[in-house]
Structure formats: structure tokens, C-alpha cells
Specification:
Blueprint (H helix, E strand, L loop, with lengths): L31 E10 L6 E11 L4 E5 L6 H8 L7 E6 L2 E2 L5 H10 L1 E4 L11 H11 L4 H14 L15 H13 L5 E5 L7 H16 L3 E6 L2 H4 L4 E6 L2 E7 L11 H4 L5
Parallel strand pairs: 3-8, 3-9, 6-7, 7-8
Antiparallel strand pairs: 1-2, 1-4, 4-5, 9-10
Length: 273
């Protein structure tokens, strides 16, 4: 390509990190950064441009809500950030490490150790007990059975699931299943939690419970990126990104402070058709 300029908002004398290498410390390194993300879905009809040149930055300990109507591309964006899908263009950095060279195995390792994901429809393993569903990621990450059990017991107790250890997912209510999914996502203490419409399948009581739990873990320093169309959930965040037609159209901190560098309306100006 003829354009060799450095990415926007990056000092010209600071080289971009190579794939898998930590970037230079020019201040606080964000837990997550993305630049120029593009994703187009190809189906039977015309190609659908789900994400169009999106850039964002998430600081350690921040709670960011991505809101917008159904079909705006919010879930696709979250899947890109968690390595569940690959962008057609653009790059993602995790704690300053560029992921351009990551394959499926490396992304799977990141999701075991550094990225917890909560899905709308829980995605629990139906033929495993609650205890096994929560302990499995810890065992895959190299924890001993004793460590995995201790982490599971602590999380289930905190999430109000004492006595449900031997239950199967199909025996639980929707709210209980989502709490199990949250415990599974947090069992390895990931620096980043991604939540894709975590209350989308729940009633109002379940939604309030998810909001309370996310706020509680955020209060302890957990970094969260939440995709939701529910204003009640979004109101628990520090910062709300409005997403429409694959683009960021607004980015505002709820306490009135400016969003992190590399985010906000300045990013909208760089979006391309």
C-alpha cells in the first residue's frame, strides 16, 4: 500500500508493535485497543458490512457499554474483539500486544487466560454439571483440580448458587444459567470481560441481577465491555459507545470526563465508507 503513515492518534516516532510483542509504554497501556476494524458478512444476498472502520480503546478497570439497535453490528464487533471472528481489515492490541499474527490456537489461549466472554444464550455445556461447567476453563488453563474447585466454590457462593453445584444447566432458570456463565467467564480472573447481550434472554428480575453483578465486579476493578440494547444495563457503565450501521456515532463518559485517547468523536471522523 502507498500510505505508510502511522495509525491515527499514535505519535509518529513510536513504532507499532509487531504481532505478539508488547508495545512501547507511552503512558498507561490500554487493556484493549482496536484500529480500523472492518468486517463484511457474505451470505446468499448482498454482502452485509457489519463493522466499518471502527477504532476504540478501553482502559484497565473501565466499564464500557456498546449500545445500538438490532442489526447495528454490535455483536460482530464484540466477536472481533474476542477473537471469535477475524476482521477483514484492521488490528487489535491486547495489553499492548498486537494480535495480527494470532491463529485459532493463540486466540483460544487468550480466551482461556485473559478474556472472559458471557453470551446471551449462556452457551453452557448441557451434559456437564454446574460445577464442571465452571471448573473446566480453569483446568484447561492449567489449574490443579483443587485450585479449580476452590475458585468455583468461591464464585458460586458469591453469585448465590450454593447448592446448585450438581445441577445440570437444563434444571436451572435463565437467570441462574447466566450466573453460571458469568462464573465460568471469571474463574481464571481475566483482565477483560466481554458480555454480549447478557440479559437479552432474561426477564426484568434477571436483568436487574445481571446489572448488579456486573457493577459489583466492576467495583473491584474488573474491565468490562458490554454489548446491550438495554438502557438499564448501559447506565451501569462508565462510558457508553453508540453504534449504528457498523460505526461508532457517539462515545461519551457518563461522569462527564473525556473518553480515553483513541476513542470518541475523533474516531468517527476517521471512518470510511
Amino acid at each position: 500500500m502507498s500510505d505508510t503513515r502511522p495509525p491515527a492518534r499514535r505519535p509518529a516516532d513510536v513504532p507499532a508493535p509487531r504481532a505478539g510483542e508488547p508495545g512501547p509504554h507511552t503512558g498507561d497501556v490500554p487493556v484493549l485497543r482496536a484500529e480500523g476494524l472492518v468486517k463484511t458478512h457474505h451470505g446468499e444476498g448482498a454482502p452485509a458490512r457489519a463493522v466499518r472502520g471502527v477504532g476504540l480503546s478501553v482502559a484497565h478497570g473501565e466499564f464500557v457499554a456498546v449500545t445500538g439497535p438490532s442489526g447495528a453490528g454490535k455483536s460482530t464487533l464484540l466477536h472481533l474483539l474476542g477473537g471469535l471472528q477475524r476482521p477483514d481489515e484492521g488490528s487489535i492490541w491486547l495489553d499492548g500486544r498486537c494480535t495480527d499474527g494470532y491463529g485459532e490456537a493463540r486466540w483460544a489461549e487468550e480466551r482461556r487466560r485473559r478474556i472472559g466472554i458471557v453470551f446471551q444464550f449462556f452457551n453452557l455445556v448441557s451434559n456437564l454439571s454446574v460445577a464442571d461447567n465452571v471448573e473446566l476453563p480453569a483446568l484447561l488453563a492449567g489449574r490443579s483440580p483443587r485450585q479449580a474447585r476452590a475458585e468455583r466454590e468461591e464464585l458460586l457462593a458469591e453469585l448465590g448458587l450454593d447448592g446448585k453445584e450438581r445441577s445440570m444447566p437444563g434444571e436451572l432458570s435463565g437467570g441462574e444459567q447466566q450466573r453460571v456463565a458469568l462464573a465460568r467467564a471469571l474463574v481464571n480472573h481475566p483482565p477483560l470481560l466481554l458480555a454480549d447481550e447478557p440479559a437479552g434472554s432474561l426477564d426484568s428480575r434477571g436483568t436487574r441481577e445481571v446489572m448488579r453483578l456486573l457493577s459489583r465486579f466492576h467495583g473491584r476493578g474488573q474491565t468490562i465491555v458490554l454489548v446491550t440494547h438495554d438502557a438499564r444495563l448501559a447506565s451501569a457503565a462508565d462510558r457508553v459507545i453508540s453504534f449504528f450501521d457498523g460505526r461508532i456515532v457517539d462515545d461519551a463518559a457518563l461522569d462527564g470526563t473525556p473518553p480515553p485517547r483513541g476513542a470518541g468523536i475523533s474516531g468517527v471522523l476517521e471512518l470510511r465508507d
